[in-house]
Amino acid sequence: MRAVLEAQPDIEVVGEAADGTAVIPLVRRLRPDVVAMDVRMPLMDGIEATRAVLRTVEDPPKIIVVTTFEQDEYVYEALRVGADGFLLKRARPAEIVHAVRLVAEGESLLFPASVRQLAAEYGESGGNRAARAVLDRAGLTGREAEVLRLMARGLSNAEIAVRLVVGVETVKSHVSAVLTKLGARDRTQAVIVAYESGFVGLG
Question: Which of 24, 81, 121, 130 has CA atoms 20 to 30 A from the CA of 14?
């Protein structure tokens, strides 16, 4: 993966960690924009390392968890605690580069169909009281609810703007409001709340 990313003129690989416990000091020192986090690492797994980075690092980076298996409960749990997306170890070079750029931009959901499948298999669709309470407290407006549904389908800000016949900046404002009201770090966490609360169906 390192060689693939280093070959890109707009991407710089600033460091590597040998295990989960080394991630936090490395992130604090190097301040990367994106971290590719192996979901299964020695000493501290990717879930705990993700949680620790987001809890202890000011202005934390975007995090992509890297996994061998797509339908992995560890991956879903990492997404629930704050990872921005996931990537398979067997991904093609173009997919790796696309994933890093997409997560860095934060304007679309990485592999939305796979996130939905993970939620269906490992989530608590419609049965998660905490997620329902978050959604109830959020008090989304009708337009914000529309935007959340389209986010769950994986549409980018530009695609949502076309669908709703509004400007991209308007969509960005709605997305920001949705994330703030749901207390979500990013689109992925907002979409997981939408699935687990039953607000968006998994069919």
Answer: 81
